[in-house]
Amino acid sequence: MSKHITQQVTKGVLILTINRPEKRNALTQDMYQALTDGLEQASKHDDVRAVLIQGSSSCFTAGNDLKDFQSIDQPPEKLPVVQFLRCLLDFDKPLIAAAAGAAVGIGTTLLLHCDLVYAAEDTRFQLPFTHLGLVPEAGSSLLLPQLVGYPRAAELLLLGDAFDAKTAKQMGMINQVLTNKELLPFAKQQAQRIAALPTEAIDASRKLLRQPRRKALRRTLEAELTCFFNALSSKESKRAIKAALKRVSGD
Ligand SMILES: C/C=C/C(=O)SCCNC(=O)CCNC(=O)[C@H](O)C(C)(C)COP(=O)(O)OP(=O)(O)OC[C@H]1O[C@@H](n2cnc3c(N)ncnc32)[C@H](O)[C@@H]1OP(=O)(O)O
């Protein structure tokens, strides 16, 4: 268990909270492992009927820890981030997310796997993969065009500009925009509402919603992973990640 991911079960909802404020909740391999453990436990326990993933009321996550990218020294297969992405794809209970402040990289793409997504007014989404010499992950090269149409998806994934919560709502990426104060209580309430509904009907409905894209999503995720880890070992990406780290931390 990572000290940066906390777990709490309330009224049938497992709340996974990302808590590394000093680094804008950037995700390390330990944190991905803790998130995967949380989802796997939730899947096994009948008393958990929905999962809420959240950061704080002012920051969701700045995405993958950039230093962590530089220190990857094991085959992708064994990496917790890869296990987390596969687990996300197969997760069999309702998944709700509450995003505020930074929602960068995987902080945006993981939302595409959630059933309900709520965002605070100040949320800044960004998919800066190409800036880092990388490619889309988490099945986003399939899910994003399906959700917002090819032209907008291409713009977001190729140019990598940040966009706000209002734009995300207009594009159909999220359910609702709330104030920072309202966000976490409202997301919890919605998760608890789902958890209180007849479980078999919720699970079967969710399966029906997801089933048509399941195989294609799995294929896309695996193709992206191959491409992503090839890119990560390229000179272009190493240079870009070093520059990004310098920009955010001065290192
Ligand atoms: C498979 C997954 C792939 C991906 O997720 S790719 C995406 C990778 N993520 C990024 O490229 C985001 C990089 N971060 C930023 O662009 C900015 O930050 C933000 C827009 C998220 C926030 O900006 P601001 O509020 O001004 O904060 P700040 O001063 O830049 O950072 C505060 C502290 O947080 C650390 N930090 C921020 N993001 C990361 C990160 N992604 N990895 C590691 N550290 C990060 C900094 O270094 C610094 O910390 P210190 O004060 O100790 O230097």
TrEMBL record:
Keywords: Isomerase, Lyase, Peroxisome. Pfam families: ECH_1. Transmembrane segments: none annotated. It comes from the Bacteria. CDD domains: crotonase-like. Its main location: other. It is found in: Peroxisome. Its EC number is 4.2.1.17. It is an enzyme of class 4 (lyase). This is Enoyl-CoA hydratase. InterPro entries: ClpP/crotonase-like_dom_sf, ECH/Chromodomain_protein, Enoyl-CoA_hydra/iso. One of its GO terms (molecular function) is enoyl-CoA hydratase activity. PANTHER family: ENOYL-COA DELTA ISOMERASE 2, PTHR43684. It comes from Corallincola luteus.
